[in-house]
Amino acid sequence: MAVYTDINEVDLKAFLAQYETGDLLSFKGIAEGVENSNFLLHTTKGALILTLYEKRVEKTDLPFFLGLMHHLADRGLNCPLPLPRRDGALLGELSGRPAALISFLEGMWLRKPEANHCGAVGRALAEMHLKAEGFALARPNALSVPGWQALWAKAKDRADEVQPGLSEEISGELELLARSWPESLPAGVIHADLFPDNVFFIGDALSGLIDFYFACNDFLAYDLAISLNAWCFEKDGSYNLTKGKAMIEGYVAVRPLSDEELAALPLLARGAALRFFLTRLYDWLTTPAGALVVKKDPLEYLRKLRFHAKAQSAADYGLFV
Amino acid sequence: MAVYTDINEVDLKAFLAQYETGDLLSFKGIAEGVENSNFLLHTTKGALILTLYEKRVEKTDLPFFLGLMHHLADRGLNCPLPLPRRDGALLGELSGRPAALISFLEGMWLRKPEANHCGAVGRALAEMHLKAEGFALARPNALSVPGWQALWAKAKDRADEVQPGLSEEISGELELLARSWPESLPAGVIHADLFPDNVFFIGDALSGLIDFYFACNDFLAYDLAISLNAWCFEKDGSYNLTKGKAMIEGYVAVRPLSDEELAALPLLARGAALRFFLTRLYDWLTTPAGALVVKKDPLEYLRKLRFHAKAQSAADYGLFV
């Protein structure tokens, strides 16, 4: 949860004057998102989200993120739509931060998703992949193999503080993944962070995807591997085959996976687990004790990593079972 | 800012089934209130606030707070209205916490209030005092002289850590205030915490008062003294006579102050400054470094206390100037 930057009514009024919105009725800082400050605005024309981009987001990446949301929403994907200012720009400035005004998407993220929800997420992810085709901008994935190696170089020496033996185990994983990571698979724009808090439902119906601030170009099946990690493990660390099967079948119903993609699934899932393990480990080691952010346990992803290391094929994830 | 307790969609659905609300469309934890967890809900019938009462609020006080809001809203004060459940109760339970569903009040609190806003606050405070008449319940002010003494007993030994000499100065203040605190002045239900974040405006028009969780029975003019402290000092520590004059004149336009109340104003303001100094000092000394709460500087209220100690009459606050 986070509101890093407060805003005042004088600056907000001047900011909103650049847009065609209704009159402002209220704004509340909301406890969602860990990278940016978000406010929920009520206006006489409806609800909006105001996002202030904090320093963890590269300003040069914002045209990619905002342009992608615009591209996807234009093609009918349910996702937040950045509103243009009167001068056409999607990005403004408020309280010294780059800031955007974005349509408010009704729906809530599920703390307790079931298999049917995982199926809906698989379908929506595949739809996003198809609808992203033709988007003019590109953004390399800074958190693929070279990014993992850079993070590990900064965290390795202190990894055994978190759990003895971690340094050796992760070094081995990273070597194996660097050696065997696929060179070519169907690629495109991926969401790269489709965790439960980024998918909204109204009742049991998926109402939209949010938070495209990790989106980038990479293998499409890697995005599915990230989502399997994020949705299909239980709190006790066990993989839920029913949820995994639902998610993969939901995905392939919209965008079939090639034999190469299916064969690569265990390796992609292993890499995805390592990616979240590494960023969590780095944050764990570097976030000061007094920070307003709840630190996420890196060891959750170590357990997932070990599951993937033992998996043989897509069947271990629920497909064709 | 605070969301101390998260809620899940399963428990929330069961909670809402006890009320006559529309269908739930979304809920967001909001970064307002330091005592409780607050969520902004959108339903097909409009917006609502869901409050989970955390342990700093005494559960036995909740009927007073919720009943007061109901009483005031019934009499036409713009304030949040607790919704009754189907069984008539104003209070339920969610995620192991006492919880209430409350009407959403549009408006925003001013980070940069001007004198005209202070005038509106004075009028609204007096209206609240008049409309609270006849409310059946009572709640003694736990933060009057005996409460200050109890807080000071717990903080005194460490006060000089915050600023050398503080222990002696505050002990003297407390003795003087205990000796000279008024024995009888017009009394009733006071808000007791009418800071800028508890007053909403739409444009320049006051749209309502919120957060009655410090409300109690005490001298009415003491409530005005609290608000003068909260609204009429500038960031540099100076008292703004124009704002003070506007607030007092706004108040007396609705509820005239007696000669005794006017004469007591410097002393009441001094006590109010000491009250906020002491709770801030106590929080400063006891809040752990890693807590999700921003600690407020007690010395801001030491400076205000010194201003009041020098004041001679209501004229020093802007009245009859």
Automatic annotation (TrEMBL), chains A, B:
Secreted listed as a keyword: no
UniProt-recorded name of the protein: Homoserine kinase
Ranges for domain Aminoglycoside phosphotransferase: 27-257
InterPro entries linked to this entry: Aminoglycoside_PTrfase, Homoserine_kinase_II, Kinase-like_dom_sf, Pseudomonas-type_ThrB
Organism: Rhizobium paknamense
Phylogenetic lineage: Bacteria, Pseudomonadati, Pseudomonadota, Alphaproteobacteria, Hyphomicrobiales
PANTHER family, alphabetized: AMINOGLYCOSIDE PHOSPHOTRANSFERASE DOMAIN-CONTAINING PROTEIN, AMINOGLYCOSIDE PHOSPHOTRANSFERASE DOMAIN-CONTAINING PROTEIN-RELATED
EC number(s) on file: 2.7.1.39
Catalysed reaction equations from the record: L-homoserine + ATP = O-phospho-L-homoserine + ADP + H(+)
Family statement: Belongs to the pseudomonas-type ThrB family.
Keywords: Amino-acid biosynthesis, ATP-binding, Kinase, Nucleotide-binding, Threonine biosynthesis, Transferase
Pfam families: APH
GO MF: homoserine kinase activity
The protein's enzyme class: transferase
Alphabetized HAMAP family for the sequence: Homoser_kinase_2
Pathway per the UniProt entry: Amino-acid biosynthesis; L-threonine biosynthesis; L-threonine from L-aspartate: step 4/5
